[in-house]
Amino acid sequence: MHPNALLELSTDLLHQVLQFQAPADRVVSDFFRTHRELGSRERHTLAETTYGVLRQRLLFQHLAQSGKGEMERRLALLGWQGNDGFLKAAMSEQEQQWLEKVRQVDTAALPERLRHNLPDWLAEPLQAALGEEFWPLVDALNSSAPLDLRVNTFKAKREDVQAALKAGGIESEATPHSPWGLRVQGKPALNKADTFTKGEVEVQDEGSQLLALLTDAKRGEMVVDFCAGAGGKTLALGASMRNTGRLYAFDTSGHRLAALKPRLARSGLSNVYPIQIAHERDDRIKRLAGKIDRVLVDAPCSGLGTLRRNPDMKWRQSPQSVAELQAKQEAILASAARLLKPGGRLVYATCSLLDSENEGIADAFTAAHARDFTPVPAVEALEKAHAGGAGDLVRGPYLRLWPHRHGTDAFFAAVWERR
Ligand SMILES: C[S@@+](CC[C@H](N)C(=O)[O-])C[C@H]1O[C@@H](n2cnc3c(N)ncnc32)[C@H](O)[C@@H]1O
């Protein structure tokens, strides 16, 4: 494809993504579906340029004020993630001069918000909570996430999967905290690897694995994954139950539960019961009240802990959307808690960076349910479940994972036991 034609497509794609009407990954994949002529390297350049612009949107919009023509084209020039010679061939003389000039701007001397590229409502609480660690977090959020796999321990051993991957030219190392995890070098295509088609591995961030580990579902138990979605954690719970007992996978989204089906078939698990519920007070939930050993609430949240993968979330969320999510989180947690039998374990988790969706919800639950639920320190639960370096994974009584400290997405989890 002619360089300028690719740059124009990048401009078009940015124009669509920056309207923030839909998640960026969906807009990008729809765009590729309507542009079948694009090869894999061209798709890679377009996607990475888009993500680069989303990550540094405030800085790039500031720098782009000085140029001429369509704003999105200048943003594409600034965020270009392809070959530099190729980009040069796409630019006019005037654009080349402009880009050279803006590349000389000393960005370290610009105001803070142009350096952290976060909206104020998000930067402020993070700065207050993290102090000096704020900037390492900013850097980590602007880098790409590693590729982690979870070994399906119902079917295979971690070291055998690692050896099989190696034989196929894929290098990996054991994850430091999850006993089920492998961190793969680079981003190899895995869906044709034998070990993947046989259901021995799933792609899953180490942080997500730790949430399932913390739930510690055991053989023969009755377990509920309350917000199962496409079942990333359901599959981990089912394997840790060794395909025995009953594992209910609830979600309000039929579409997400449908995505669980092929993964379930690959996994070899037959103890999972996916159920679409209307809302968190659905009658089917009431019938199970007081009967369940473990409940994982992987609550709908702002997703701000996954900014490495979904940098558009910082522009698509707002204080209002977070406040609405908090109300939902409280309602789901209160309803899910009724399922537990005495001695049962409740786990509340999010992939949010914000205290308001994390400690805020957990502390309020502890205060409101002091008669029925005892908090369990996360470090204790992690140690019992054989997580490596459990003491490094917690803040106070809660699990708190950070990209800059742990190399995972940001996650929070709180654990209680029903009296
Ligand atoms: C963080 S995602 C879950 C991700 C999933 N556990 C995984 O590991 O892939 C939150 C899920 O909550 C679901 N959800 C939203 N409202 C809900 C409700 N009232 N009851 C149950 N699930 C709900 C959403 O459809 C979404 O799939």
UniProtKB/TrEMBL annotation:
Coiled coil regions, renumbered to chain: none
Taxonomic path: Bacteria, Pseudomonadati, Pseudomonadota, Betaproteobacteria, Burkholderiales
UniProt protein name: SAM-dependent methyltransferase
GO biological process: RNA methylation
Keyword Methyltransferase listed: yes
Transmembrane segments: none
Similarity section: Belongs to the class I-like SAM-binding methyltransferase superfamily. RsmB/NOP family.
Active-site residues, as the UniProt record annotates them: C351
